[in-house]
Design brief:
Strand order of the largest sheet: 5-4-3-2-1-6
Helix content: 25-40%
Number of domains: 1
Distance between the termini: 66 Å
Oligomer: single chain
Number of strands: 6
Length: 215
Amino acid sequence: MKLADAVGRNSLVLGLVALAVTLALAGTQLLTREQIAAQRRAAEARAYNEILPPARYDNVLLDDFRLVDDRDLLGLQQPRKALVARLGGAAQAVIVPATAPDGYGGAIELIVGINADGTVAGVRVVAHKETPGLGDKIDARKSRWIDAFAGRSLADPAPAQWAVQKDGGVFDQFTGATITPRAVTAAVKRTLQYFEANREALLAPAATGSEARHE
């Protein structure tokens, strides 16, 4: 009986230890996920004014949005907000979230500002896992490479040239890191294609009482 009691106590202790470790890991994962989400929201907030200076709109940008839910062109895994900038009630531009799923280190999260005429107002990467010193040059804090998209459209350059130079396109790649700029360039092109296909819905007058949703 004593041996059985000892085995029982040991089993109970091991079970409690395993439970404590599981709870600790779950708590750490939850905390990390929340921190990552908060960091991305902060990065997006900083990027809005870089893409669209406040003088370009007089509405409350964060309150005027469309919910977009597109996996094919935008690469989104869940609905996200596309923010509409208006001046005097007229839509000036929209900031569209997108994901490049094929970065070297994994998915690259970005936002693409697109003017009402279909030209790029600006692009910012808000989350990535690319290699420091190589692929992280997509980050505006590391280099100004991302600014090369400003002013571009589906007509400039021609569709076949919406690629990095190594693939016959007009956009620079990084020495030793072609995969990252290739992924971002393709994602920006797809976002422009999404805008072109959904321009009317994205730039429609503000919804009354609730946000609009577009898939």
